[in-house]
Amino acid sequence: MYLHSLTLQQTTGITQSIIGNFSAPKSQEICISRGTILELLKPEITTGKLITLISKECFAQIRKIVPFRLLGVIFSFYVFFLE
Predict the structure, then answer these.
(1) Which helix (H) or strand (E) holds 51?
(2) How many domains does the chain have?
C-alpha cells in the first residue's frame, strides 16, 4: 500500500520563470514553477497586476523549464523536466 500526502498551503517561492506567447499570438505570458506547481500568469496592462490563467500541480519536483519556438509558428512552447 502506498500513501501520498499533500500540504494544505501552496508553496510561495518561485524557483524558475520563463516568458513567451503560450496562449495567444502577441500576448506576453509568464510561466513559473513553484516546486511541484506549474503556473501560467498574464500581466494586466491597466492595473499592473499578474492574473493566474492556469495552475496545475505535478506529482514530482519541477527541475527545469525550457522555452522554445518552432520555425513558422506564432506560439511558444515549453518543456519542463521533472524529478
Answers:
(1) strand 50-57
(2) 1
Q: Is the pTM of this model over 0.85?
A: no
Q: Which residue from 10, 16, 57, 9 is spatially nearest to 33, judged by alpha carbons? A: 16
Nearest to 33 by CA among 14, 9, 20, 50: 14
pLDDT in tens, 23-68: 877 888 999 998 888 999 999 989 989 999 999 988 888 888 888 8
Domain of 49 in residue numbering reads as 16-71
What is the C-alpha separation between 44 and 56, in angstroms, rounded? Answer: 21
